[in-house]
Design a protein that fits this description.
Blueprint: E1 3-14, E2 17-23, E3 26-28, E4 32-36, H1 43-50, E5 58-63, H2 69-72, E6 76-79, H3 91-101, H4 110-120, H5 136-148, E7 154-158, H6 166-181, E8 185-190, H7 193-199, E9 202-207, E10 210-216, H8 217-220, E11 223-230, H9 234-241, E12 245-249, E13 252-256, H10 260-269, E14 276-281, H11 284-301
Parallel strand pairs: 4-8, 4-9, 6-7, 7-8
Antiparallel strand pairs: 1-2, 1-3, 1-5, 9-10, 11-13, 11-14, 12-13
Helix pairs in contact: 4-5
Length: 302
Amino acid sequence: MTGVVRTTGLLKRYGPLTAVGGIDLDVRAGDRYGFLGANGSGKTTTIRMLLGLVHPTAGQIELLGTHRLPDALRQVGAVVEQPASYGHLSGRTNLRLLDASGPGGDRRTRSARIDDALELVGLGWIDRRPVRAYSLGMRQRLGLAAALLRRPRLLVLDEPTNGLDPQGIREIRELLVRLNEAGTTIFLSSHLLSEVAALCTRVGVMDRGRLVLQDQLEALGGPTGRIEVRTPDVAQAAALLGRAVAAADGTRLLVTGHDPAGLNAVLVGAGVRVEHLAAERHELEDVVLAAAGAAGERAGAA
């Protein structure tokens, strides 16, 4: 896979405070990369360094195959924190000014690109109201439209669904999937595990300024080595399986093993009614908490 975002030992200190502690990001072409971490974990500082808004204390950044950030940023769209705008002007006027002031804005295609971007984010109906009259969700959508004006190869988003209702969150998620399928790599920062789990294909987890986990989401959600069984005959199944039963609760059993088909054959052959049987998989929340906890223990021992 081609590297889209790569950092080596990326470090940011503010006096004695280490905001980002020497991280090695690896975002590949075609990724929908979820950048997870609690507020204050270093996510936004990292993003600001990637976009040239903050200078690193140490380390290297490579975007879209080059270390020359000004060149790469022409092909990057971004929404960081609260989208900036002139509150007394309309959304369309804000987009016109933004496109005219940035590098590479083609005046001949400006109106068409603005129309396309607004339509994509669900603001195609936008009127002449000033932005200060917009809801927070509308401002988020306008910020995303601004990020899409140049049809970027890489889209960097910091908490993009902030202020959106559930329907709006779903619409933005579907839009990001479509953009990704059309060739745009997505780098999305969030503290919401559910948002990342629903959208992303690869994740990185920050904790206290350090990257404590980075892998494909599918790999992180791998089998736990146990099989979940739901049956109204819990007592009969437990007696049959003996020490293989790791836990039992109501109509649910967790059974140690890696062969769901074989277990199903044993239960059904003994007359146990099986309503559900599948390999148990790791939950993203458990994986993230475990990684953060292990990193905290290492830091405390250092």
